[in-house]
Design goal:
By secondary structure, the chain is of the alpha+beta class. It has one domain. It contains 11 helices and 9 strands. Strands 3, 4, 6, 7 and 8 form a 5-stranded antiparallel β-sheet that branches. Strand 7 and strand 8 form a beta hairpin. 32% of the residues are buried.
Amino acid sequence: MQSVNVKSWEEFQQKLDELVKDHSTRKKETLRHISDLLFRGQGDASWQLTTTLERYAETTLDVNDYYRAISAAKPQIESYTDQRWEIITPPDYAKFLEKQELGLFKFPAYEFMVYLRHNGFPSPLLDWSRSPFVAAFFAFRHASVSTPHVSIYAYLEYAGKGKSFSSASPHILSQGPYIRSHRRHYQQQCEYTICLAKSGAELVYTCHEKAFASTYSDQDLLWKFNIPSSEKLKVLRTLDSYNLNSFSLFGSEESLVETLAVREILFRNKRS
């Protein structure tokens, strides 16, 4: 991982332009697959890249155990929402896992997992956005002056030389954007990654940070831009001028109220 400290929002935009230009050059110089850049914002530069499942369970969780948990929740969710999710049974899921090559891993219940992720169910999916400015909003949305820096991450899974996998080591897999899911998935231009590893004979979800600490230099490239949290109001004003705010990204009554509070209190404060 490359960690870059910048002094201002403008300097971050310069670094972003350089990164995007380098990405474009990579695509022109090879016929092999180059992933799209993905971005993620975090409100404290000291936070690690962790999923909501990691923060909730505070331990590694067997992939089959998690599937049993979401399968148990499914009929109750369907009864309340009148939506239906066609997913395979836990025994069939266990058989499916036995036949999968890790480098080609795709979840049968991926759409349902994304739906759960956007509705607060602890998830092994780490969410990213194809927009660096959506990521910036999430970095600065709840930034505090007591926190020196926020972070915006940029991630490139495939850098033109394919990917190597080892079942004994943590490895990251992206799952792609083309699914039927919660509308926030599209509003926020989301994509998701999972991190898997073997624990004995079992496949478990594990921490992305372990995979990023590997010695591979031509895959899973990660940049971390640390920006002063004191830039918060400038950034949020700029994003809001392009209609990028809580309401446009969440579309709920609560997010409308949040957006109005930011505009009428924070933006109109003469000291801001």
